[in-house]
Amino acid sequence: MFNLGSALHCFSSDLAIDLGTANSLVFHEGKGVVVNEPSIVAINTITHEVEAVGLQAKEMLGKTPQNIVAIRPMRKGVIADFKVTEKMLSYFIQRAHGRKYMVHPRIVVSVPSEITQVERRAVTDSATRAKASEVYLVEQAMMAAIGAGLPVTEPAGNMVVDIGGGTTDVAVISLSGVVYSKSVRIAGDEMDEAIIRYIKRMHNLLIGDRTAEQIKIKIGSAFPLDQPMEMEIRGRNLLQGVPQAIKVTDTEIRGALSECVDVIVNTVRGALEKVPPELSGDLVDRGIMLVGGGSLLRNLDKKLSAETQLPVMLAEDPLCSVVNGTGKLLNDFRFLKKVALSVD
Q1: Structure pTM?
Q2: pLDDT computed for residue 325 by the predictor
């Protein structure tokens, strides 16, 4: 008998999605990364219609009229708003398929390693309601290692540290399996919040999320810089209630970020303590691979190397490592079935 589901699948292409707290990336089989946009949706509170998604919605943050709300449906690596996530996924799927509506692709979604069963079900249901024919969940750390080109199938230890927007995933991988993994909900977003708190406490200046992110990118660091840096920032003076511009230095921002950086460093050190002795020797030679947007923080590799006494490398394409690794599974269904997480 003619199967409608099979027929629809024939006209669609499989997708791999890195559903991130800060950014979502979509890998289209045969085309590579076709979507790379912020995980933000602008909703009209009167009509409940989507006004914008991704980059357009991010431009609206803090600038919308009362009837439009810019929402980040992902928090700390998991779904915080089920319905908005569904709308965001639908938009990205259509974008990946050239705005075609009759598409029902198989979707592989990468998720944090310590995501709960309830959270796994939420991701699966959102993707299914967004018209996916089948949904598979895989661990971000494993996908990051594959995307970064690490030899995960060999009988040797490979350590990857994936610092995203909402979570930091640390994993040791050998023989296509995760020997040890740990996920902490401290990453890029928490760094931004730490900067906001510092500027408020030390300078009585209120700044927004976008300004904090710009500060982190332009002068943020985890280890002393060779050359001092400073940046002018603008916000609202909390004492006088008027706009104000001040200058902040890299030393100040490094101090503001120190607590977040220390959590990441301690998570890595904790992983090294739990690794079997046979694999520890491999890490002396192979070192640690950094991926994810948070890994771009200046001198984070130097900080980790100093604390662990191991070589630390930044992936060639840290922002796309997870989605590229997930995309590789689209051509290896047997391996996908092997590493897919259980949802039931």
Answers
A1: 0.86
A2: 94
Written as six digits, the tokens of 167 are 């979570």
* Percentages of the chain per state (helix, strand, coil), in multiples of 5: 40, 25, 30
Residue 12 scores a pLDDT above 70: no
What's residue 251's pLDDT?
A: 97
pLDDT in tens, 211-258: 999 999 999 999 999 999 999 999 999 999 999 999 999 999 999 999
Quick one: fold of 151-186+262-317? Answer: Nucleotidyltransferase; domain 5 (3.30.420)
The whole-angstrom separation of Cα 296 and Cα 54 is 21
Mode of pairing for the β-strands spanning 41-44 and 50-53: antiparallel
| DSSP code at position 103 | -
What is the crossing angle of helices 209-219 and 188-203, to 10°?
100
| Predicted pLDDT of residue 100 | 58
- Is 118 in contact with 111 (CB distance < 8 Å)? no
- Into which CATH architecture does domain 4-40+75-142+322-339 fall? 2-Layer Sandwich (3.30)
3-state secondary structure of 17: strand
Q: Report d(CA 125, CA 111) in Å as an integer.
A: 14
User: 74 φ, ψ to 5°?
Assistant: -105, 130
More confident residue, 56 or 104: 56
* Domains 4-40+75-142+322-339 and 188-256 equal at CATH topology level: no
- Please state the domain extents for the chain: 4-40+75-142+322-339, 151-186+262-317, 188-256
